[in-house]
Amino acid sequence: MPALSSLCLKPAALSVQSSSQVSPPLSAMLTPLLLLGVLLGLGAARYSPDWPSLDGRPLPRWYDEAKVGVFIHWGVFSVPGFGSEWFWWHWQGQQPPDQKCVDYMTKTYPPGFSYPEFAPQFHAQFFNPGDWADIFQASGAKYVVLTAKHHEGFTNWESPNSWNWNSVNTGPHRDLVGDLGEAVRNRSLHYGLYNSLYEWFHPLYLMDKKNGFKTQEFVMHKLLPELYNMVVRYRPEVIWSDGDWEAPDTYWNSTQFLAWLYNDSPVKDTVVTNDRWGAGCACKHGGYYNCEDKYTPGQLPKHKWEKCTSVDTFSWGYRRNMKISELMDLPTIIKDLVQTVALGGNYLLNVGPTPDGMIPTVFEERLRGVGAWLKINGEAIYASKPWRVQAENTTLPIWYTSKGGTVYAILTAKPPKPTVQLLQPKTSAATKVTLLGLPKPLSWTPIQPNAGLIVLLPELPCDLGQAWTLRLDGVQ
Ligand SMILES: *[C@@H]1O[C@H](CO)[C@@H](O)[C@H](O)[C@H]1NC(C)=O
Ligand SMILES: *[C@@H]1O[C@H](CO)[C@@H](O)[C@H](O)[C@H]1NC(C)=O
Ligand SMILES: *[C@@H]1O[C@H](CO)[C@@H](O)[C@H](O)[C@H]1NC(C)=O
């Protein structure tokens, strides 16, 4: 990464094109070309800072094709590792506080211990970005999203706007965002950053809040300079925005930021964003939709969406006292992934690393399990499209995806009999059925002349995972 730490943008300069900020000589060379492009009508569409314009931007193609991502919640909250990444709020923010958090602090830490004192204990001494990236690659994920800053406000990079409350000035003394990004990209995975708009205890934010969000001190002097800087430095291809819900998008200046991101930022052609850009935006505005955490639609949504969920069902951040019974097991994860993709979604699976920089081995095992399943069944997942029918309406959970003329029927439970009925596909004389992972075609018979079929299943190999994919060619 070029050292761009001097690029602490002042709000007044924010509307200036990024290219001229980064490299004036290059932009001077490019300008005539750009001008020519515009004159010839070759220029890409420019977006104006309003939702109708921004919502009309086509989603860069890589994202829908990727289907699977890994989400990482890592920060100072990983040090207490208790309850969830919301620990600080539950302990000292909400009224009344969570008694379990208060008791934990009383029992475990000296009297008067404050949350910022956890930061020096965020050592990350075993953090090896290459090892992490190897695990993510082995999981079959095509993108990785790291918390650059969660609601506690601590940045995992040297933000000039977060002095002494970032991973370079204290704790790990390391550019976690940059180091992981390099390793992730080296494995040809896309790299995204989670960024919380609000910060629970930032004095400027609390002041704006007291003013009913009629002032924008926090946005102009903290949030936006930091966010623009983060994009220019790290060029994230996903901006996973969060913490928006207390204030409207006009307070956050979200449409102005997104117009810059889509028109002039260094990632304007490849970046995708979610829908958390202000109260009321979720499921309505932005790039793809998250709607709510762990959102699962009942039927095929019209708009591209992503399900984010966590292996630890109680928390996104690391918990020192997590129990195996509180984690999603591998079959549950694979079922969830399959259903999500059949319904047109991407699946972003979260793990919480420890403060010393390890991915708990149980999370690693889950991720590698997903990867082993995708190695055989990924053909039905990556770059697939929802089919005309999403599921078989039977007791056995069967989900459909498609690619070109091929239809995939994914069985997420072992059928009780050695045959399976598929009522939806329309067969023809050319119909061919195979099980992904096995070379030989399977026998089948039509149920009606051209509607539905019964497939004779082979012994379903358990090492193929907890879900089996029938590949159907020559069906409609
Ligand atoms: C914020 O939005 C206002 C309009 O709502 C605009 O005048 C101003 O330039 C924007 N500032 C930044 C830094 O985007
Ligand atoms: C990853 O790093 C290795 C070693 O530095 C290099 O040879 C390789 O080309 C890199 N791969 C990518 C995809 O950047
Ligand atoms: C699913 O099956 C039930 C019971 O047989 C039926 O009432 C329902 O209409 C079916 N739904 C679809 C979408 O075919």
Quaternary organisation of the protein chains = single chain
Briefly note the CATH topology name of the largest domain: TIM Barrel
Put simply, the count of helices is 14
Broad shape: globular
- Main-sheet strand order equals 5-4-3-2-1-7-6
Which structural class best describes the helix and strand composition? Answer: alpha/beta
Q: Name the beta content range.
A: 15-25%
Can you name the CATH architecture of the largest domain?
Answer: Alpha-Beta Barrel
Gyration radius over CA = 24 Å
Residue stretches low in confidence (pLDDT < 50, at least 5 long) are: 1-30
**Main β sheet profile:** 7 strands, parallel
Alpha-carbon distance between the two ends? 50 Å
Q: CATH class of the largest domain, please?
A: Alpha Beta
Return the average pLDDT rounded to an integer.
Answer: 92
Helical content band: 25-40%
**CATH homologous superfamily label of the largest domain:** Glycosidases
Number of discrete domains: 2
Q: Note the run of SSEs as H and E.
A: HHHHEHHHEHEHHEHHEEHEHEEEEEEE
Give the number of DSSP strands.
14
General description of the model:
The protein is globular. The chain contains 14 helices and 14 strands. The chain has 476 residues and is an alpha/beta fold. Helix 5 packs across helix 6 and helix 7 packs across helix 8 (176-186). The longest helix is centred in the middle third of the chain and has 18 residues, at 217-234. It is 29% helix and 16% strand. It has 2 domains: 51-380, TIM Barrel (Alpha-Beta Barrel), CATH 3.20.20.80; 398-473, Sandwich (Immunoglobulin-like), CATH 2.60.40. The chain has a 7-stranded parallel β-sheet. A 4-stranded antiparallel β-sheet has the order 8-9-14-11. Strands 10-13-12 form a 3-stranded antiparallel β-sheet, with no helix packed on it. It has helices at 18-22, 24-39, 51-55, 61-66, 87-93, 99-108, 129-138, 176-186, 203-210, 217-234, 249-252, 254-263, 330-342, 361-377; strands spanning 68-72, 143-149, 190-196, 238-242, 272-273, 305-310, 345-351, 398-403, 406-411, 419-422, 432-435, 444-448, 451-456, 468-473. The structure holds 2-acetamido-2-deoxy-beta-D-glucopyranose (3 copies). One 2-acetamido-2-deoxy-beta-D-glucopyranose binds next to loops.
